[in-house]
Write a structure and sequence with these properties.
By secondary structure, this protein is mostly helical. The protein has 20 helices and no strands. Among the domains are: about 120 residues, no CATH class; about 80 residues, no CATH class. Helix 6 runs parallel beside helix 8, helix 11 runs antiparallel to helix 12 and helix 12 packs antiparallel against helix 13.
Length: about 350
């Protein structure tokens, strides 16, 4: 039973216990009989194994991690042919849908079972979805536990790599964040484009403005998603601003605001560019737009974690708006309205 829970094949169990494969199959039948696992599918060893693992996972999940096999398991031809039944997969997906915490034993079990490719895809999608929900709730450590297994089961899952990179970033682990962003950016889809955007932002924060520009400019022509495109133009404008290329910076920031009219980061950067160009009135208007847009974003509260630069820009906005409006900002009503 321990070896069944470890995911070993009939042949591996037979070799390890020095018995014949027919004896293994007989033992499996007897074990299932003892647990009352008799069904219409009794002719399928795969089904019996699935029912047994499902039962243990439901009532005694700690047993799944008690036995660590020393054999490097490979799917046999017989195992591959008998993967029609997805009872274990369905149970695990049902268990995951309840957002139960993934303990160490269950993690070991998931990564040890010989799922077929379709099962891995199903499992990874479920893990990625739950991990993303925890990310939105700012429960980044829990999100990490789901997303790490998602990419382990399906290493070419670009969206999960992106979400994992974003989670690592929120946990201030920039090395791991960059690693997973770079994997995600290999796939020319929305997640890949968003990964390039986030990677460029990290480059800017480290003073690598030229590197950020080199990341963004080659992909701008093919990006279709307006939200991602607005973020890319914003970061391009930011990088050019840091290089004192104010005209180019302003051009990209205005494009960003055409794509997303209430985009707070673009307003904050545009205000700084206008200040550098000596356009004080324009800067004041942009700072006010920044405060209104940023307040609206906070009220939506999609992600409670805040970009550190936006908090700094918020203070700059409050210092740089004209005196009458700034006086109004200090009233309790304004602070309540703006979420400050």
């Amino acid at each position: 039973m321990q070896r069944i829970l470890a995911g070993e094949t009939d042949a591996e169990i037979a070799a390890a216990m020095n018995i014949g494969e027919p004896s293994v199959r007989k033992f499996i039948e007897r074990i299932c009989h003892e647990f009352g696992l008799n069904s219409d599918h009794s002719d399928s060893r795969r089904y019996k194994r699935s029912e047994l693992v499902t039962l243990v996972a439901k009532h005694k999940p700690d047993l799944l991690g008690e036995y660590q096999p020393h054999i490097n398991h490979q799917l046999t031809v017989t195992d591959t042919e008998e993967t029609d039944d997805t009872n274990v997969t369905e149970f695990i997906l049902q268990l995951l849908s309840t957002h139960q915490p993934i303990n160490e034993e269950f993690t070991k079990f998931l990564t040890r079972v010989n799922f077929n490719e379709q099962e891995k895809k199903q499992m990874s999608k479920a893990l990625n979805k739950i991990g993303y929900q925890h990310y939105l709730n700012s429960d980044f450590n829990k999100a990490l536990s789901y997303l790490k297994i998602a990419v382990e089961l399906k290493p070419d899952f670009g969206s999960a790599h992106y979400n994992l990179g974003a989670t690592y970033e929120k946990l201030d682990n920039w090395n791991q964040a960059c690693k997973h962003y770079k994997i995600a950016m290999q796939y020319q889809n929305r997640a890949g484009d968003a990964a390039i955007n986030n990677l460029a932002r990290l480059e800017i924060l480290q003073g690598n403005n030229a590197e950020a520009i080199e990341l963004i400019e080659p992909i701008l022509f093919r990006v279709k998603d307006n939200t991602v495109k607005a973020a890319l133009h914003k970061n391009l404008g930011w990088a050019y601003f840091q290089q004192n290329c104010y005209a180019q910076a302003k051009q990209h920031l205005l494009i960003s605001l055409e794509l997303e009219t209430d985009y707070a980061p673009a307003y904050g950067l545009l205000a700084q560019v206008q200040e550098a160009q000596g356009d004080k009135q324009g800067a004041i208007l942009s700072w006010q737009n920044f405060l209104e847009s940023y307040s609206h974003d906070q009220q939506l509260n999609k992600v409670r974690w805040k970009l550190p630069e936006l908090e700094v820009w918020k203070l700059n906005a409050m210092r740089n708006v004209n005196q009458p409006n700034f006086t109004n900002c200090e009233s309790p009503d304004f602070f309540q309205k703006s979420g400050l």
